[in-house]
Structure formats: structure tokens, C-alpha cells
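Work Package 4 report. The design task specified in the project plan requires that, given a folded chain encoded as C-alpha cells, an amino acid be chosen for each position. We show below one input record used in the internal validation round.
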């Protein structure tokens, strides 16, 4: 019986190895991205470039507190993987540096930003989704805050976002701000030496 059991285990292992030879070449040869990763790459490509942004900020009571115009710009650092950017809202004297990137091994799409206060904010979400959230952020009053960022109404040259906050671990959310992004006209003099956003589909290139 022991010999028969060992023989059966060996057969299963052999079958698994043989099956892997049929599966792996198909995945490697086709170089097709899993749907969530392909969607994340498209998000990065769509975000690349220069944007005129209208930001609407909401008060604690949900009413509009302020509206201001600004700009966002994203350039490729690593094509189809990492964008670096800068957000400026002159009326509010706000400037922030940003990274927007695909973490392929974790299958997440993440955005990191840091402003004049030096506080790094990182939002992360599933690669195939348009929503990203922060980890819990400690507040001076002892509470912990979550922030949630969602893109919607997306076209080639326009999209909207909303930022929401939660102080009860995500059980309820309040509007923080809304942003409308409209792609700015290309300026050859400004962007001539930079990597431009891609307007045509590109083949998926997995990390090695």
C-alpha cells in the first residue's frame, strides 16, 4: 500500500509538471495582461499629460466652501508603470508633488503625494478599480481618519474625482472635495523634450 501511495503521489506531481508546460507558454507567448493590470495601465496612460483642474471644497456641513482653478501635470518616469506629477492651486497657495504607479506584484494602483507640510499621503486600491483609499491617518484630537479617492465620468480628455473622508473606520463618508479635470491643449515648446502621453494602444509588457 505504501508503494502504491508513493506511486500515486509521483503520478500527480508528474501530471502537474506536464500541465504547467501547456499553461505557462501560453501566458508568456501571448504577453496578455490580466484584465485588472491592463485596466491599471490604461488609467496611467489616460492620466499622463497636462490638465486644467477646477477644485470644489466642501465644509463640514456638506455645503460648498470654496472653488479654485489650478493645474496638474504628469510625465512618465517608467513607461506604463510610473508617472511623476505636480499639482498647483495658486489661489490657495498649494503645491504638491505626486507619484502615480502600478504595483504589479501586489496588483494595486497607488498614488503618493506630498505638499508643503512634508506629510506623505499614499492611496492604494485594486489595479482594476477607480477607487483608492489611505491607511488610517492619526489626527491631533486622537481620532483616525480615512480618505477615499474615486475617479468617474472618464473620457480621453476629461474626468472627475471626488475625495471623501471617514472618521468611523469607513462606516460612513463625507464629501471633502470634487475636482473636474480637462486636458490642456498640447504646447510643443513646453513638452517637446518630454515623454508625451500615449494616444494609441501599446502592447502590455510584464515586469521581469
Amino acid at each position: 500500500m505504501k508503494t502504491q501511495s508513493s506511486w500515486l503521489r509521483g503520478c500527480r506531481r508528474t501530471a502537474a509538471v506536464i500541465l504547467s508546460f501547456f499553461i505557462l507558454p501560453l501566458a508568456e507567448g501571448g504577453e496578455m495582461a490580466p484584465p485588472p493590470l491592463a485596466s491599471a495601465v490604461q488609467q496611467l496612460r489616460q492620466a499622463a499629460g497636462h490638465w486644467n483642474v477646477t477644485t470644489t471644497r466642501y465644509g463640514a456641513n456638506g455645503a460648498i466652501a470654496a472653488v479654485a482653478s489650478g493645474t496638474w501635470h504628469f510625465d512618465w518616469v517608467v513607461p506604463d508603470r510610473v508617472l511623476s506629477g505636480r499639482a498647483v492651486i495658486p489661489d490657495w497657495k498649494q503645491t504638491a508633488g505626486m507619484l502615480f504607479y502600478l504595483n504589479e506584484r501586489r496588483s494595486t494602483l497607488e498614488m503618493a503625494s506630498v505638499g508643503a507640510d512634508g506629510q506623505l499621503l499614499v492611496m492604494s486600491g485594486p489595479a482594476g478599480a477607480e477607487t483608492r483609499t489611505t491607511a488610517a491617518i492619526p489626527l491631533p484630537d486622537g481620532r483616525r481618519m480615512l480618505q477615499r479617492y474615486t475617479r468617474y465620468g472618464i473620457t480621453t480628455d476629461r474626468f472627475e474625482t471626488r475625495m471623501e473622508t471617514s472618521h468611523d473606520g469607513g462606516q460612513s463618508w463625507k464629501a471633502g472635495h470634487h475636482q473636474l479635470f480637462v486636458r490642456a491643449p498640447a504646447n510643443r515648446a513646453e513638452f517637446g523634450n518630454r515623454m508625451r502621453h500615449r494616444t494609441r494602444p501599446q502592447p502590455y509588457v510584464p515586469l521581469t
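The longest helix spans residues 2-30. Validation will be extended to a larger panel in the next phase.
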